[in-house]
Amino acid sequence: MLPETESFKLTYFNGRGRAEVTRLLFAQANVSYEDIRISKAEWPALKPKTPYGHVPILNVSGKILAESHAIERYLARKFDLLGTNEWEAAKIDEIICNLEDVWVKMQPWLHEEKGTKKSEMFETLVKETITPFMQRYEQFLLNSHSPYFVGNKMSLADLAVFHILYYFQEMTSNYPKLNEFVVKIGQMPRIKAWVNKRPITDF
User: Fold this and answer.
1) In this structure, is residue 203 part of a structural domain?
2) In a domain, 166, yes or no
3) Closest-CA residue to 86 (of 162, 150, 21, 158)
4) How many CA atoms lie within 13 Å of 53's alpha carbon, on the beta-carbon side?
5) Is residue 1 included in any domain, yes or no?
6) pLDDT tens column, 39-93
7) Do 147 and 130 touch, CB atoms closer than 8 A?
8) Are residue 31 and residue 114 in the same domain, yes or no?
């Protein structure tokens, strides 16, 4: 149970990026927060006021927490989405660490202006990173006795995988288990409501 006086303000750019898993956590937990989306023009003035010179940052009743994965873990623990024991929490961390490798390789493509170069970057990204990633995660689900990546209920790991896969929806049909997973998570009422109402952005 959250304290009645506890408030949350999430600050990031107007994009999904490194803040979207946090937004999905808030959505699934049905917890209200202020979704502050700054422009590129506003960033130079805000940057020196952040702990490490980047966003997202989370303001929790006046206290500041930085670093996307620290924010995610803090909220996942608070919202009971960090597994049911220490082993599951560690396996969730394992997936988050692996997804970070994928996410870093996605960055140049995400931030490239639309055009021939972006298309070429996408082809390389799919061949070298996304296809192996999807093959590996398809196998994880094939080997699992659960529809979730860790344990028998939704966790931070599932929301993080869902976030990455959302960028490559047209490819998941080639992977039956992943496709089933994306549909399952995407049809959960609170997740579906958030995805339907969130701003359409470039990244």
Assistant:
1) no
2) yes
3) 150
4) 0
5) no
6) 999 999 999 999 999 999 999 999 999 999 999 999 999 999 999 999 999 999 9
7) no
8) no
